[in-house]
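Lecture 7 notes: from sequence to structure.

We start with a single chain of 295 residues. Read the sequence below before looking at the structure.
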Amino acid sequence: IFLKFNIFLSLFLFTFSSTAEVIHSLKGKVVRSLSLDYQSTNKILVGNKGAAVGSAFVYESRNFGKTWKVLNSGKPLSPQATDVQSVAYTPKLILAGTWKHGLFLSMDNGNSFKKSKTISSSDIRDIKIVESSPLEVYLATSDSGLFKSIDGGLNWKKLKVPNEFFWSLNVLASGQVITASSLDGRVYLSKDSGNTWNSIIEIESPFFAEVNPLNINEVVVVSEKKGVLRSTNKEEEWEELKFPGISKSFSSASYLSSGELILGTWDNGLINLNLATGVYKHSLAQIPGVHVKTK
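Now the structure, written as tokens:
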């Protein structure tokens, strides 16, 4: 059961608990990436989007967002980097992927980071672990395709996918089912832990795709330009989920154990959709709700 869900906003970080507590933190920071510890509901990693070179910082909270610490002894990951595009906990490491400056890893709980020498890409877009086997890690890049690690992020193997330009990944807890969205307009699906891939849809600006963990034949694809598309018959047909009066500028999606779907937008908060009834609720209007994480 998901007791808490976390919402990554482009300017601020809001966390919501099952007791309806709302915490507003990192005010004034542009939060570029967010990850929850697979072992703890209290530990959160955040990577920022900086305004100048040498402003790529990683923040950690160990009390569900109430207080934060700058990792890497308070220093940026690199003197040149500006954006920390992806962050993740693994059993051995903390991983942080940057724009144009590669992957950084910490072996001492975030006290220090060093650049990985086992991955060739300089643009690390997304990092996801397999919750049932957290030494398995998947990584998306915009210049070299997809990679997989089986040792928590120390070493990487390139996956055979007919594309190099990826924006985001999503991995179900079992590790078998993976979606990968490319900004060339294709969404790819693997049902065998990344060994083989199929292109399931072509659509403008597909920022995110997620498979329903309760029904792997159901997939939702989120596009900044075309809205939210859903397939319930093994990707053979797609329907648009419509929300009158709300722009199609969607950015992310996350299924809840209740069967509901949480949708994030670039400029207009969150949509909570009951898929069984079609009834939805709109919250945090006019606030960018860029990424949604559930725990």
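Confidence is low (pLDDT under 50) at residues 1-12. Keep this in mind for problem set 3.
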